[in-house]
């Protein structure tokens, strides 16, 4: 009888140890998962750059720079505000309820911007950047993807383009009488040829 009780006690002790080890492994796995989630970069979460192209267009007689698939409605656009500032416009109907914030990420910097709903044939959410805001210069100098998030909607990752620099600088230098930047020339830079060879230097005459 004593031997049977000793064997039962040993079995229960081993089972308790096994449950304790399983709990420790589970805790370690959870900690590791939280650590991995913490160090994920915005680019990994965003899942790739959006398909489309930057192109010149016109909205309400104002020249704009917009992004979207070829031949389709744009998903995002930049527009001068007529005061040397800039509008960031996320195209699409506004969600019901209170308007969300727009978050703009460039590299390690993220800014939260209030939006207003703009109706029309193509509704959109518009965030304004004042001309004295350093964000205007940061946007003009940025050479990496732009990540735009509006509320809980999926992030929109926009590719970098020299056209953004050209357009934003044009907004910053707009004439005082050029209402809404209507006269700004939007030059969309063409891709550089692959394996382009520099021209040979000419001999001095």
From TrEMBL:
Keywords per UniProt: Signal
Signal peptide coordinates: 1-23
UniProt name for this protein: Lipoprotein
């Amino acid at each position: 009888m004593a031997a049977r009780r000793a064997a039962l006690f040993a079995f229960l002790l081993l089972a308790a140890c096994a449950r304790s080890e399983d709990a420790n492994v589970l805790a370690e796995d959870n900690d590791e998962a939280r650590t991995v989630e913490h160090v994920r970069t915005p680019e990994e979460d965003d899942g790739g750059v959006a398909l489309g192209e930057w192109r010149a267009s016109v909205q309400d007689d104002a020249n704009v720079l917009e992004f979207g698939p070829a031949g389709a409605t744009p998903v995002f656009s930049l527009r001068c505000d007529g005061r040397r500032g800039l509008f960031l416009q996320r195209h699409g109907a506004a969600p019901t309820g209170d308007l969300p914030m727009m978050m703009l990420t460039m590299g390690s910097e993220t800014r939260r911007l209030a939006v207003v709903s703009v109706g029309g044939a193509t509704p959109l959410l518009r965030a304004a950047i004042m001309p004295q805001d350093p964000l205007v210069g940061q946007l003009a100098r940025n050479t990496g993807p732009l990540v735009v998030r509006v509320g809980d909607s999926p992030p929109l990752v926009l590719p970098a383009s020299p056209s953004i620099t050209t357009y934003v600088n044009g907004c910053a230098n707009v004439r005082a009488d050029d209402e809404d930047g209507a006269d700004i020339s939007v030059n969309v830079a063409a891709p550089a040829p692959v394996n382009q060879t520099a021209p040979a230097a000419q001999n001095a005459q």
